Amino acid sequence: MSDCEIEKCRICDRVISQVGDNGTPTVRFVSAAKCGHCCAEFWAELEQVHRTGRIVVIESPYRAYSELELQRNLAYCRALVRFVVNRGDSPLASHLDITQALDDRDPEQRERGIAAGLARLRVADVHLFGVDLGWSSGMKRALEASPSHCTVEKVPLPDWADAMKSYEAGGDRGPLDALIAANQPMWHAHEVLK
Questions:
Q1: What's the average model confidence in pLDDT over 90-107?
Q2: Could you tell me which of 138, 118, 122 has the C-alpha nearest to residue 130?
Q3: pTM to 2 decimals?
Q4: How far apart are CA 160 and CA 69, in angstroms?
Q5: CA-CA distance, 47 to 129, in Å (whole number)?
């Protein structure tokens, strides 16, 4: 008796295709299989959600050697998220979520975090790089890993470029501090619910 392979829908578990002879099947789930039967409603809802825009993985510098640099990098990433949402797309920014759970100072945790962030590229339509703060080694690594199905965008945010030029030219932190303040996490702007 030889094995056969069965593809099943991940949503409803319906068999989509079967290859091989009768016998004990080896089951392989298909990540985005449409079975065309009871999943139709699920896929219609999913397509409605995604009709509003593309999935965009955001890359920007994260690693910092001072508190100011870290706050600047996080604020810049939040500004990129706002930019992506405002143009109608859906952002994925690993610097704003994975770094909340893993310690970037621990090399093993840093590598796992980078790998998790890069795994998001499998579902992305766009791989966006914020270029105003320069290219970090992590951003260069991400660019090399960018899959062929993703459109690569290198995006400057004009206010950030001007603030960085001002800071680097004469040490004027005013414009940079204003941008950092304007891009703090939104929970700072709201009351804690009771």
A1: 91
A2: 138
A3: 0.69
A4: 14
A5: 26
